[in-house]
User: Which sequence fits this backbone?
């Protein structure tokens, strides 16, 4: 009997072993806050997905205090920091995030200069002056549901960033007094970059931070805009830097790429931006009788000529295709012409008529070949129809002859 | 009158039958004949760059749709020929020990002017014009 | 001129001993009555088959049966070879017209009860010819190695694999492996240009020989009365030729205005195109399989359908033996009804394939 009771007790105790860890690490922060409401409750649930939790950090690691203490006053011991004031937030996060030795324990390759960069940014400058409206860490990264910027649901993920920035920067009421436009986000959404990022899911397409910086965010200076765009558009930037525009723009103080392409609402460039037409950008500065005006007009003319040829070639091939002639090879050749078209449009940044004409000459020989094939295909289609008419004529001739012969034979047999 | 009519119909039948047969035979014959692809007549081509070939070595390059051979002689001269042996169009090579062009198929030999030295080839190799333009070695047909 | 022809004929005759054959040909007669229009379809099938042989042999000159170059060789034929577009389009169009003609020939012979004694073997050999030509169509369709044909072959052989027990082995044998690949192309080419033509020569030889020896069958409704007969040479042959000329003109128009597509080169890793289906002459079976519920009692729907086809085919082949009434020269309305049902089924199922959404 005693043996049985002893066995029973051992059994009762041992089935609690799996639960020991829970008992050992009691987190009374969570336990108490679970019973509360609103903003005292939300952190408990939000923190479940927080990245700090993955690294086994919890409430006390940021807010201090003793999570093992059930009593609230004992829990809020001298290490307790509570909720930081808005002006203190950057420093609060930086306690760990600017400490290379500390951060190395969790991720040896993570950057630790965010706070330094932040103090150099517009947000940082204004915060130092006491402006509490500007963005601090939590405005962009969240408070208790912080995800790494590489996570698609993070507020700092490329296709979420513009929304995060836009939360303040598009709010006219909030931005009153800052003497800044508030249409950046609206304009950005209409741009090619937004299309690439949101529709084509191209994560390399720029969002706000790519041109303005992350923690050290500030608008780029006028003379450095082309350097910023150059990160992704090096060939256009090179051509531009070699052109007479670079010096001229820098002297006058015009912001290079932005002058023709815009800053936030960068649309797909069209050929109408060239030359001297209504929508051309050249006529914004150049007078009708000037040399640049003539060059602009020349460039557009050459481009249009080439375009016409390419278009004609395409029509020829499409027609031949519809008529059933096999033209997949010339069609493939035509893609070469399209490549040259892209290169010619790119070369317009150099403003060098010579370079453009050379490229167009290359394209001309390709298109000439395609047009030759296309015209041959058209001839082939006509030849086929003519051949059909002739052969069908002979066949019907033969059919008639057969018919007459049959009649003749029938007559003969009946007579 | 009946005889003429009967003969006419027979003639008509025979004639139209021949016509139809011809109309069918023509495409079949054209189909069977080898396809003559209009070759782009290559006139000039950059075969190599200066410094690419050591003296007394050679390089085979593409000239249009047939091979050419570029030789850097031991005196530093450049020679270029059509690499198609005039015997049975095998591709010739340059033999550095003898300083001659050799066709490995039937041991035909040519000198550095393209002339036949020995073996079955009936005529000299077509020689090309060599021009040095900057870094490029440009080969073109002699007109 | 006539003298020369005479001389040549007598030269050949004394060496080939053709006089008996020529006598037979001259005596050969064909009945002429209100249903004799259907007699032309046998000759039409033969004529179209010869067109296929001619164009097929010509295509062999430039086609290469390797996955790296099959599609390209067709593109070459369509664009570079003189009249290549014509030879290829004729071959593709005539294949479809031929199978259509075979169906017409088969059903007209069925309804006219031409299969009855003594022509049972003509019917049975004809049945095998139907299978052979459908195999021609199936194997030939893959040869251009384009997207549609690749996936249609995959779907078709997947269906073959659902036959219980031996299905997987059948599929493996047909494809030369577990899936449609290079081995399949060589195997289908082998079938299409060697095995099937050999089989055709034998079976078609038997079929045509029987027709010559037994003459044309006269429908039961007319056999009691006196039926007019016309000589085969030249009367019937001239009428035959007239039909052939008209078909030739039709093929010409189709090839110039609706040349056969080249398609995209097959990519085994591409997604199966939506709405992929086999060629029209297989669609009645394809749609049956799509429509049949997944389970009928405890039997899997597909298996039931395939069994159904096999039993039906067997029945169809043995109709001359099963139709006692016709064998005795009596009317056989039951079998006419069966034939009508079969015809309606095939036509309806084929039409449904193209009109029903989701197939």
Assistant:
């Amino acid at each position: 009997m005693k043996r049985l009771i002893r066995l029973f007790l051992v059994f009762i105790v041992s089935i609690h072993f799996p639960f020991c860890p829970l008992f050992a690490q009691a987190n009374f922060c969570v336990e108490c806050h679970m019973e509360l409401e609103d903003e005292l409750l939300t952190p408990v649930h939000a923190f479940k997905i927080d990245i700090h939790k993955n690294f086994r950090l919890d409430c006390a690691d940021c807010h201090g205090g003793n999570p093992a203490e059930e009593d609230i006053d004992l829990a809020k011991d001298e290490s307790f920091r509570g909720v930081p004031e808005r002006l203190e937030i950057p420093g609060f996060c930086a306690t760990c995030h600017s400490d290379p030795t500390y951060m190395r324990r969790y991720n040896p390759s993570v950057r630790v200069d965010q706070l330094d960069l932040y103090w150099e940014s517009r947000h940082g400058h204004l915060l130092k002056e006491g402006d509490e409206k500007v963005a601090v860490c939590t405005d962009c990264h969240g408070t208790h549901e912080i995800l790494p910027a590489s996570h698609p649901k993070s507020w700092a993920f490329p296709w979420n960033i513009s929304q995060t920035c836009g939360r303040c920067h598009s709010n006219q009421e909030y931005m009153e007094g800052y003497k800044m436009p508030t249409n950046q986000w609206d304009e950005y959404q209409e741009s090619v970059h937004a299309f690439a990022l949101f529709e084509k899911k191209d994560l390399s397409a720029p969002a706000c931070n790519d041109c303005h910086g992350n923690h050290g965010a500030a608008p780029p200076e006028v003379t450095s805009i082309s350097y910023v765009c150059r990160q992704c558009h090096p060939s256009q930037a090179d051509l531009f830097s070699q052109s007479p525009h670079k010096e001229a723009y820098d002297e006058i103080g015009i912001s290079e790429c932005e002058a023709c392409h815009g800053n936030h609402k960068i649309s797909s460039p069209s050929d109408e931006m060239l030359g001297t037409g209504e929508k051309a950008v050249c006529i914004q500065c150049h007078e009708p009788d000037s040399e640049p005006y003539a060059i602009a007009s020349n460039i557009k003319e050459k481009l249009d000529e080439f375009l016409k040829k390419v278009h004609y070639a395409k029509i020829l091939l499409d027609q031949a295709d519809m008529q059933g002639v096999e033209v997949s090879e010339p069609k493939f050749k035509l893609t070469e012409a399209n490549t040259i078209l892209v290169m010619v449009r790119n070369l317009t940044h150099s403003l060098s008529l010579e370079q453009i004409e050379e490229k167009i000459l290359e394209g001309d020989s390709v298109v000439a070949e395609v047009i030759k094939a296309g015209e041959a295909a058209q001839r082939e289609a006509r030849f086929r129809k003519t051949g059909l008419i002739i052969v069908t004529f002979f066949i019907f001739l033969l059919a008639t002859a057969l018919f007459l012969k049959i009649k003749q034979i029938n007559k003969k047999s009946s007579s | 009158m009946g005889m003429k009519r009967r003969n006419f119909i027979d003639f008509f039948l025979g004639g139209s039958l021949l016509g139809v047969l011809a109309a069918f035979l023509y495409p079949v014959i054209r189909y069977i004949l080898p396809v003559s692809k209009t070759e782009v007549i290559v006139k000039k081509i950059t075969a190599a760059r200066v410094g690419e070939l050591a003296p007394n070595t050679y390089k085979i390059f593409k000239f249009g749709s047939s091979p050419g051979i570029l030789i850097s002689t031991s005196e530093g001269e450049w020679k270029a020929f059509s690499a198609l042996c005039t015997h049975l169009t095998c591709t010739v090579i340059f033999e550095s020990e003898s300083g001659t062009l050799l066709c490995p198929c039937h041991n035909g030999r040519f000198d550095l002017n393209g002339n036949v030295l020995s073996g079955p080839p009936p005529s000299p190799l077509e020689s090309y014009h060599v021009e040095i333009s900057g870094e490029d070695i440009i080969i073109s047909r002699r007109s | 001129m006539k003298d020369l022809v005479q001389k040549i004929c007598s030269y050949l005759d004394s060496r080939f001993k053709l006089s008996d054959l020529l006598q037979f040909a001259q005596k050969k007669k064909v009945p002429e009555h209100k249903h004799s229009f259907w007699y032309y379809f046998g000759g039409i099938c033969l004529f179209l088959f010869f067109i296929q042989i001619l164009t097929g042999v010509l295509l062999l000159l430039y086609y290469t049966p390797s996955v790296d170059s099959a599609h390209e060789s067709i593109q070459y034929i369509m664009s570079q070879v003189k009249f290549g577009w014509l030879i290829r389009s004729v071959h593709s169009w005539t294949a479809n017209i031929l199978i259509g003609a075979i169906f017409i020939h088969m059903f007209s012979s069925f309804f006219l009860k031409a299969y009855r004694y003594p022509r049972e073997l003509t019917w049975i050999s004809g049945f095998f010819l139907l299978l052979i030509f459908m195999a021609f169509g199936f194997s030939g369709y893959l040869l251009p190695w384009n997207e549609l044909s690749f996936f249609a072959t995959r779907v078709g052989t997947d269906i073959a694999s659902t036959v219980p027990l031996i299905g997987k082995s059948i599929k493996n044998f047909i494809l030369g492996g577990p899936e449609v690949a290079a081995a399949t192309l060589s195997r289908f080419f082998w079938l299409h240009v060697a095995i099937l033509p050999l089989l055709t020569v034998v079976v078609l030889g038997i079929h045509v020989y029987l027709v010559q020896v037994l003459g044309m069958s006269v429908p039961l409704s007319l056999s009691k009365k006196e039926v007019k007969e016309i000589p085969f040479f030249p009367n019937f042959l001239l009428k035959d030729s007239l039909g052939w000329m008209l078909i030739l003109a039709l093929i010409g128009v189709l090839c110039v205005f609706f040349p056969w597509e080249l398609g995209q080169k097959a990519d085994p890793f591409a997604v199966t195109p939506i709405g992929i289906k086999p060629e029209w002459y297989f669609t009645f079976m394809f749609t049956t399989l799509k429509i049949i519920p997944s389970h009928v009692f405890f039997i899997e729907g597909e298996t039931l359908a395939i069994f159904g086809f096999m039993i039906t085919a067997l029945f169809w082949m043995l109709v001359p033996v099963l139709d006692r009434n016709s064998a005795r020269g009596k009317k056989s309305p039951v079998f006419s009804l069966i034939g009508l049902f079969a015809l309606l089924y095939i036509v309806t199922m084929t039409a449904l394939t193209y009109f029903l959404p989701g197939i």
